Protein: glutathione transferase
Organism: Bursaphelenchus okinawaensis
Amino acid sequence: MSNFELIYFNARGRAEVSRLCFHHAGITFTDTRMTKEEWAEKKSDTSRFPYNQVPVLFIDGKPLTESHSINRYVANLTKLAGKDELEAAFVDQAYEKVRNMIETIEPFYLVPLGFATGDYDQLYKDVFVPGVQKHFPQIIGLLKPSGFFGENGPTYADFYLAGYIESFLKHGFPEVNKFPPIIKHLTDVKNVPQLQKYLSTRPDTKG
């Protein structure tokens, strides 16, 4: 088995899908979490951070960048991308649908995260509410009888969705509660047996 080091901030953000996949599969990896100050000192090292960004996954010392590429690689490695090529395509469809939802609501979501400025209440009304009203029913429609996007259990797309829903609830976005299947999906992911040890010990972060 290769040696893995995943480098990101002390946040769920763009690294949590891969963290969950590793923990679900019981694959050992180094979970390196930097402070903003540490990142400011290290980001110019292009031998480790080729595009001056994180997350970066080191595979036997070789850096892989771009969070979605990392997520797909780790999902395939940990058998969480689908049991065959056809299911993998539909799981990836679900992943992209969630990604599309995030891109839609991002002009609002970056404000409470502190990465953008704007009128919180107006953006919530004009961007977040119509965004989730459009995308949540479509996402719910992709869930299988298993309760997940996979026929037989959770996939990396489930971890992707659950991470954002958890953050939305932490920030107190009431529109989310109008979609019980979305809330149930988060509960189902958080109850996956293989994740219990990690979920009980991971840092409590805003996003």
Remarks:
- The radius of gyration is 17 Å.
